[in-house]
Amino acid sequence: MSRKYDNILVAVDGSKQSYDAVQEALEVARRNQAQLKLLYVLNDKLANIPVHLDTMTLYKSVQEHSDFVVEELHKRFEDQAKTLDIVRLTGTPKREIVNYAQENNIDLIIIGSTGLDAIDRLLLGSTTQYVVNHAKCNVLVIK
């Protein structure tokens, strides 16, 4: 990569590919002396899935996963970065990633090729595919 990046965003969901994306982003941020933001989006769509769990139980489970991912990020990468700037949003992950990037002058998004959102893949296509097609900045996909 010959272009200099100032603001890098990494989408994380707890998948192996998202942790690999964070590792790559740390290297790219270091080389570019860039600001690095890690974004976890709590998928609000999960509350509308017809399952035999009440909404509060399902939301609590999703929130616990969010907390687990953030803790895991700190455990895995805290020693590699001065600070981990982790942002948590609620919404549709693919849209929130693109919107956040646009609203925060992100010039590079780094994302795993696959993630944990099987529902989106089945119904609407992958989050990664959406981000690649709709982001206004460069997107680096990590396999």
From TrEMBL:
Domain UspA: 5-143
Cited Gene3D superfamilies: HUPs (3.40.50.620)
Major subcellular site: cytoplasm
Gene Ontology CC entries for this record: cytoplasm
Location within or outside the cell: Cytoplasm
Keywords for the protein's UniProt record, in alphabetical order: Cytoplasm
Domain of life: Bacteria
Similarity comment: family membership: Belongs to the universal stress protein A family.
Record protein name field: Universal stress protein
Organism: Lactococcus taiwanensis
